[in-house]
Write a structure and sequence with these properties.
- This protein is of the alpha/beta class and about 270 residues long.
- It has 3 domains: about 110 residues, FAD/NAD(P)-binding domain, CATH 3.50.50; about 60 residues, no CATH class; about 70 residues, 2-Layer Sandwich (Alpha-Beta Plaits).
- Helix content is about 25%, strand content about 20%.
- It has 7 helices and 11 strands.
- The strands form 4 sheets. Strands 3-2-1-7 form a 4-stranded parallel β-sheet, with helices on one face. It has a 3-stranded antiparallel β-sheet with strand order 4-5-6, with no helix packed on it.
- Helix 1 runs parallel beside helix 2.
């Protein structure tokens, strides 16, 4: 890289398109940081960043301003007019339509760097099914609440941080990791956990151990016990949602406080 007299960087390669509509977040900041390092090593080096939108989050906007002062060139391109790259002898030729000049421009460079889009772990879907935690449309894990529970899942005792949640800067990943540790400690430091009072239970005489309730339970709180020969509820995990009660074909699963007799008693009282 030090021998290269000219360097071109292309942003948003493989992201912010139909396949991956999200922004990878850290690419612009890293490109500007690398451009400053190149200029620091050799002020005469020609550095060009080809971008769609410069997104230097937070205080990193100061680095973008500094890069402009050090004569780092920024050329914008539109999604429908992406840069074209070809080999030209010992160099690489990049052709791009400059919206300011309103014409095509060809840049000759010794080194071409591509800021490729971040993709989620292909195993996220399988992990999500195993832990009963959801993923969003992009394939990253989805938190319970973006403001109130940003590192929690709906399934208790499972937390997330970093790139499993979404593309983010390293300092953001570290901050989120601290948050996840803090949330886990609130559980690990307790001598006992108070369970939800409104939980499901199973009538063993009616249950035929078909496993339908186990499949439908969103919290993995009920499972068929082969030794018992029926489904068994883990009251610590149960949230009293009633999915098992509604799906049980034998009317074996019921909900404390909401069984048939109690519901009918409320109706007659009204």
């Amino acid at each position: 890289m030090t021998a290269a007299k000219s360097v071109v960087m292309i942003q948003c390669v493989g992201s912010r398109n139909e396949e991956r509509p999200y922004c990878s977040r850290y690419c612009c900041s890293e490109a500007v940081k690398n451009a400053l390092k190149l200029k620091e090593a050799d002020p005469g080096k020609d550095v060009t960043i080809i971008y769609r939108d410069v997104r230097t989050f937070g205080l990193k906007e100061d680095y973008y301003k500094k890069a402009r002062e050090l004569n780092v060139k920024f050329v914008r391109y539109d999604e429908d007019r992406k840069p074209e790259v070809r080999q030209d002898g010992n160099q690489i030729a990049v052709t791009i339509f400059d919206p300011i000049l309103n014409e095509k421009v060809e840049l000759k460079t010794d080194l071409l760097a591509l800021s490729v889009g971040t993709v989620p772990n292909p195993g996220n879907e399988d992990i999500g099914k195993m832990l009963k935690v959801p993923t969003n449309q992009d394939g990253f894990f989805l938190e319970a609440h973006v403001k109130l529970r940003p590192v929690d899942f709906q399934t208790d005792g499972v937390f997330m941080c970093g790139m499993s949640h979404a593309p983010k800067l390293s300092e953001e990943a570290v901050t989120q990791a601290y948050a996840a540790v803090s949330r886990a400690c609130t559980i690990l430091t307790k001598d006992y956990i108070q369970a939800e009072g409104k939980t499901a239970y199973v009538n063993k005489e009616r249950c035929m151990a078909c496993g339908l309730c186990e499949i439908n339970c969103p919290f993995s709180a009920i499972a068929v016990d082969a030794k018992e020969g029926c489904a068994v509820v883990n009251s610590v995990l149960c949230k009293g949602c009633g999915v098992c009660t509604a799906s049980c074909r034998m009317n074996a699963a019921d909900l404390n406080g909401f069984n048939n007799e109690e519901v009918l008693a409320q109706i007659w009282a009204l």
